[in-house]
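Sequence in, structure out.
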Amino acid sequence: MIARCLAGTLLGFPLAALLLALVLHVLPEHGQAFLIPALILFFPLWTAFMAGAYLFRSGPRAWLVLGGANLAVFVALWALRLPG
């Protein structure tokens, strides 16, 4: 149980931040107008990832899925920032 709790807490934080950064990057002309709602949305999104970690059967599976999601969103954000 503690492994799922830590997975949701430690991996949910960057996942929520990366998802909101991805949304802000995709909306370049409206990104500044969405900044305050994105900051307000951050905590409920992080809380949803923490609660969602308990849906996994085991702690290692939660770490694997949330870690993979972090990696996928990070790579997508990194790919969008590449020139050309």
